Amino acid sequence: MTSAAKPIDTERFAAGLRARAIDVEGGRVLISRLTGSSQEVDLTVPANCNGYGRVRHFRLATAEGWPANPLPIAPACRALGIAPVPDLMTALVFQNAACAWRCWYCFVPEDLLKADLSRSAWFTAAELVDLYRQIPDAPQIIDLSGGSPDLVPEWTPWMMRALADAGLAETTYLWTDDNLSTTYLFDALPHADLDLIRRYRNYGRVCCVKGFDARSFAFNTRAAPQDYDRQFEILRRVLDLGLDVYGYVTLTSPHDDGVPQGVADLMDRLQAIDPNYPLRVVPLRIQIFTPVEQRLARDDARARSLAIQEEAIAAWMSELERRFSPELRTLQICDVPLRARSA
Fold first, then answer.
1. Confidence of residue 288 (pLDDT cuts 50, 70, 90)
2. Which residue, 23, 119, 232, 242, could crosslink 28 as a Cys pair with Cβ 3.0–4.6 Å?
3. CA torsion, points 52, 152, 275, 198, in degrees to nearest 10?
4. Which residues of 195-208 are buried (b: 16+ CB within 10 A; e: fewer)?
């Protein structure tokens, strides 16, 4: 059973993966090859960019009882001047080939998370942008996903410069996933890169909190429970940069005791960082993709957690209603004010 396994030592594991997943001197990132992978069967359209890119369909509509998901649709439309906001937008996704956590519900198979050169290849940002330019009717959103892009934070400013050099900075929207597992964004980037990320107009970052308490976090990620607290420390630092930051939260847990209190405590922690931040967070309902189906078969607790997330989302929606006025709750997600952005 996964629950009995030794927790992942995030700091050590991440350092080893980073060493294999980025070539800082050469300006290259290791990108997963989707063609021929077990992820390929879940793609709605065939992989593109010679097998290293994919088109993702982002939809506002979700499941009954769950809030709509306007990410990254609404921020992209705001940045690109698209109105009205459509119900669906596509994005070109590149996945970096490493992640220090092993979330059981991840749609990416584990063999694409190990910085395995037999399942990935090196690319500069300019090469990725060149592949993007060759796509007919290319999506206006480019999603730097994973894997775990925060293992290789240089990738974001490299892409920003490559898009600017190609004359695409104003017509594309760059979106970066962040699972809040490392502090490399602050430890590895020179000031010039951080300044570029701050001032780049068509950019948004989404940070994912994995669970509503330390127990659910450890169950979801296989990391040590104390890494749950560390997620909030890192999130605070990201928000302090003044970026256009959004959030995801996953609400799966094998334990049905204390769910409403756990969700309330999570909301308290998010509001301690920024009072309005929960209104920029979208709870993600876990769905069964092919890699997930295989993992579910090995663990009854995982199947049980899919039912518990339904209780957790009801608690989440109740907390939002209790804490925020109707006027704030009806704001478009990209209009929700953050202290660091108004300062």
1. confident
2. 23
3. -100
4. ebbeebebbbbbbb
pLDDT tens for each residue of 198-238: 999 999 999 999 999 999 999 999 999 999 999 999 999 99
User: Taking a C-beta distance cutoff of 8 angstroms, is the pair 17, 102 a contact?
Assistant: no
Going 234 to 235 to 239 to 243, the CA torsion angle's sign is positive
Total domains present in the chain: 1
**37 contacts 147 by C-beta, under 8 angstroms:** no
Element (H, E) at 142: strand 141-145
**CATH number of the domain within which 88 lies:** 3.20.20.70
- Cα 233 from Cα 181, distance rounded (Å): 10
Find out whether the peptide bond into 291 is cis, omega within 30 degrees of 0.
no
Residue 343 lies in a domain: no
Residue 103 lies in a domain: yes
The two three-digit tokens of residue 20, written as one number:
């294999």
- Domain residues for the domain of 294 are 2-337
Q: Which of 198, 185, 309, 178 is nearest to 248 (CA)?
A: 178
Q: Count Cα atoms within 13 angstroms, Cβ side, for 47.
A: 18
Q: Is residue 98 domain-resident?
A: yes
d(CA 43, CA 37) in angstroms, rounded, equals 11
Whether 3 has a pLDDT exceeding 70, the answer reads no
Residue 50 CA neighbour count, 13 Å, CB half: 14
pLDDT per residue as tens digits for the range 250-286: 999 999 999 999 999 999 999 999 999 999 999 999 9
Average pLDDT score, the chain: 95
64-73, 77-86, 188-197, 295-304: range with lowest mean pLDDT: 295-304
- Residue 342 domain-assigned? no
